[in-house]
Amino acid sequence: IADLGGNPLVMDSGSTQAGRGEPIADTARVLGRMTSAVVWRTYHQADLETMAEYSGVPVINALSDDFHPCQILADWLTIKEHKGDLAGLTVAYVGDGANNMGQSYALGAATAGMHLRIGAPEGFHPADAVVDDARAIAAETGGSITLTSDPRVAVADADVVITDTWVSMGQEDEKAKRVTLFGEYSVTSDLMTHAKADAIVMHCLPAYRGLEIEANVIDGPQSVVWDEAENRLHAQKAVLAWLLDR
Ligand code: NVA
Fold first, then answer.
1. Which H or E run includes 119?
2. Mutation test of ligand 1: which of 75, 104, 204 has the most ligand atoms closer than 8 Å to its C-beta?
3. CB atoms within 10 A of CB 48
């Protein structure tokens, strides 16, 4: 925000009345009178939508329990830099397909005309409504969404292999259970032998080395995670500039 010439105002529940229980609609009305845009990382998707409805300014989802669209923009920029055109590429996402990243990859891959394969345990794929929306979009763009519980099937001949933490924000108490549940979905050098030889590996970070991704994979020659991390900066500036220009 500062790079773009704006004045970033950092607020959290501890330093505002929002933490005391002020209705989101009221906070939204006030923020809309004082700011040009709101970038909000929170839990409930519905709260973000209330913020958007009542603030009257652009509201950017900086992560919710359900979606993380800003990360998708940074990821697609990273894939473009390394692979060229997005349409037609095969992307494997392995791990927690039900989290904000799994759901956002479904919608993002469909929009870009990519073939997405999600390798996740039964019960940990994106919500049916999200898969239906993604497939409807894919029907228009030439992309596709495949759900499997076999990580090798997901990764077979993929151009891009992606994972994310098995323990998303707010799930810290479930860590032990989730580590057991997702154990066979780790992106290891062995799993990578099923992808294309020139496949790239991505992770939105922060990573648990040795859980969802092996240290020698994240640190290896196929990993583009530091480009991906840098691209959060460029992609998020582009979103703000685009929205405010409109
Ligand atoms: N699924 C992760 C994404 C972190 C950027 C989480 O919600 O914690």
1. strand 115-119
2. 204
3. 24
